[in-house]
Amino acid sequence: MQINNPDGHRADEHIVNNKELSIWEALIPVIALVGMLAYNVYVFGDEAIGGSNQFILLLGGAVAAIVGFLNNVSYTQMLNEVAENIKSTTGALLILLLVGSLAGTWLISGIIPAMIYYGLQILNPTIFLAACVVICAIISIATGSSWTTSATVGIALIGIGEALGISLGMTAGAVLSGAYFGDKMSPLSDTTNLAPAMAGGDLFDHIKYMSLTTIPTIIITVLVFIVLGFVIDTTGSADTAAILSDIDATFNINGWLFLVPIAVIFLIIKKTPPLAALLIGTLLGAVFALIFQPEIVTGLTNSKNLTFESGYKGVLMAITVKTHVATDNPALNDLFTGKGMEGMLGTIWLIVCAMFFGGVMDGIGALSRITKSLLHMAKTTFGLFASTVGSCIALNITASDQYLAIVVPGKMFAKAYSDRNLAPENLSRTLEDSGTVTSVLIPWNTCGAYHSGVLGVGVAEYFLYAIFNWLSPIMTLIFAAFQIKIKQLVKGH
């Protein structure tokens, strides 16, 4: 496996090889974990990701520890591996905190609302379905959340589509395709941060490499919806005037706000370290909030005038804790809620608990044993990619949670990819192409249940039209089968 050092270079991480462990002993903790997670999701439903799944990961680690004790693996050895695992995610954890802070200042500065405002204006009845994909992609990139996109603009688009006489399944499929494209490609997304953390890669390297399969997939998706848009009959009109008016009445919307995301994109292109780029983006967002949205900033602190103290307090609140910008439109109120650093603590909690499970599995030699068996079965590079895709989808079905569909295969396959001299971006991209996006296609998965409930459209109705979601794992397998842009490890890194 590869870990991130503070200077950006990678060093090999030792994985314990316990020859006494049989494959069945190595699989006991995995089987126990999947069983406990499945029952936990059954009991808690969507709320399972709020904390109970994290504790189940600790219980899974305890089962692994028992297997280790029975095979004469010391407590110290297991704990040392846990410590090394958590240390390897230090960069990812700090990035997550800054992602939360950036999202907070970009909300109160009007940057995210501006993206939504201009995005909604590209609606056209003739290309409504394709527009749904684009709008949801823009909003999901801006917010880093497919759930938020679905629950706000997604609901509005479902209503507009119904008024136009378009199939609810088609509209829902278009909404989810765009929402998950944005969720995958946004550095604000927790899964986009989680995948490279599990694979041992860099966030922005992961996004850049992932675009190789994601861009063709979304282009095909949009083209299909354009064709569908010309084939089906539509009636009525797509009226977003009320939503646009409410956004305009709440925020000072103007083109200058886009200077901040442009600056951050420029820094990323210039290979500025992610922590520095995100910190600069956060601070620029804070400055623009004070310049363009002083009423929003003072409103957070219940102050009448913008002073140094009220400005300081408002900005720090947006950076650190959950904040809310009220509008006259109930559908927008949920969208205009910033999480700050506090909102990322759940994902950080998940990573730490996952590192405990993975660390104990490392310590007892279980991961080494499992990866050897996987490599034995996956004799080719394509076989390794296919095994990863299959594992992610299987975890989405059995564990019913997209985070675990990234965490467990990511931890198990990292060494296998490294042994094949494959860069960690190959694994992190495959985890997202098959773990993140397919979760919404499974009715009992937390994502499938959530989006189906929010949009009021059954999974069976939108499954076929969620083109981006089911095409993504196929695309990554095509790239693997034909050896297209398969990145090798760079010697000395």
Structural write-up:
With 493 residues, this protein is mainly α. The protein has a domain at 92-343. Helix content is 71%, strand content 2%. The chain has helices at residues 23-44, 52-70, 75-88, 90-108, 111-120, 128-143, 146-163, 168-185, 190-199, 203-231, 241-250, 259-269, 274-292, 294-300, 308-320, 330-335, 345-363, 366-377, 381-398, 402-419, 424-436, 446-455, 459-462, 467-481, and strands at 2-4, 10-12, 323-324, 337-338. Helix 5 (111-120) runs antiparallel to helix 11 (241-250). The relative contact order is 0.17. Residues 1-15 have low confidence and may be disordered. GO terms for molecular function: antiporter activity. Belongs to the NhaC Na(+)/H(+) (TC 2.A.35) antiporter family. The chain crosses the membrane at residues 23-43, 55-73, 93-120, 127-147, 153-176, 209-231, 251-269, 276-293, 348-368, 380-399, 462-482. Residues 178-482 form the Na+/H+ antiporter NhaC-like C-terminal domain.
Layout of secondary structure:
Elements (H helix, E strand, L loop, with lengths): L1 E3 L5 E3 L10 H22 L7 H19 L4 H14 L1 H19 L2 H10 L7 H16 L2 H18 L4 H18 L4 H10 L3 H29 L9 H10 L8 H11 L4 H19 L1 H7 L7 H13 L2 E2 L5 H6 L1 E2 L6 H19 L2 H12 L3 H18 L3 H18 L4 H13 L9 H10 L3 H4 L4 H15 L12
Antiparallel strand pairs: 1-2, 3-4
Helix pairs in contact: 1-2, 1-18, 2-17, 3-17, 4-9, 4-13, 4-15, 5-6, 5-11, 6-7, 6-8, 6-10, 7-8, 7-22, 8-10, 9-20, 9-21, 10-21, 10-24, 12-13, 14-15, 17-20, 18-20, 19-20, 19-21, 19-24, 20-21, 21-24
GO molecular function: antiporter activity
Membrane topology: Multi-pass membrane protein
Keywords: Antiport, Cell membrane, Membrane, Transmembrane, Transmembrane helix, Transport
